[in-house]
Amino acid sequence: QVRLVEFGGGLVPPGGSLRLSCGASGFTVVSTDMSWYRQAPGKTPELVATIKVFLGGTTYADSVKGRFTISRDNTVNTVYLQMSDLKIEDTALYYCGGGGARGRGTQVTVSS
Predict the structure, then answer these.
(1) Dist CA 67 CA 55 (whole Å)
(2) Which residues contact 66 (CB under 8 A, 6 or more apart)?
(3) pLDDT digit string, tens, across residues 28-81
(4) Which of 48, 40, 44, 47 lies closest to 67, judged by CA?
(5) What residues have CB less than 8 Å from 107, skipping those under 6 apart?
(6) What per-residue confidence (pLDDT) applies to 79?
(7) What is the pLDDT of residue 76?
(8) 4 and 23 in contact (C-beta within 8 Å)?
(9) Cβ atoms within 10 A of the Cβ of 87, count?
């Protein structure tokens, strides 16, 4: 059964950092492109970052370039999203996708 589970969200002040994790089962994260998405209330989903199968190349939305880093750990079959210098506009439900699956997401709230 293909499954993705995210965790690591929370409440953080502006300028803070968080690391999100996405654990996969039923497939390996190195076998497919893996992405993080986010959706803020009343807005359409946004593709935040992707790590590709080929050489682990990464791409980012312009809104997060230089602040977020996507990575993967093959030994624990997990994809991460390291977020720093968080802004209020980063508040959203973050979820990962890949292997034909999508997780339920983890909430990130940036507020003072």
Answers:
(1) 21
(2) none
(3) 999 999 999 999 999 999 999 999 998 989 999 999 999 999 999 999 999 999
(4) 48
(5) 9, 10, 92, 93, 94
(6) 98
(7) 97
(8) yes
(9) 14
- The size of the chain, in residues, is 112
Cβ-in-10-Å burial (0-12, 13-18, 19+) of 4 comes to: buried
- Compute the distance between CA of residue 29 and CA of residue 10 in angstroms, rounded to an integer: 24
Of 49, 99, 39, 47, give the one whose Cα is nearest residue 70: 49
Please give the Cα distance from 41 to 34 (Å, whole number): 23
Return the structure tokens found at 93: 């439900």
Cα separation of 91 and 98, whole Å? Answer: 22
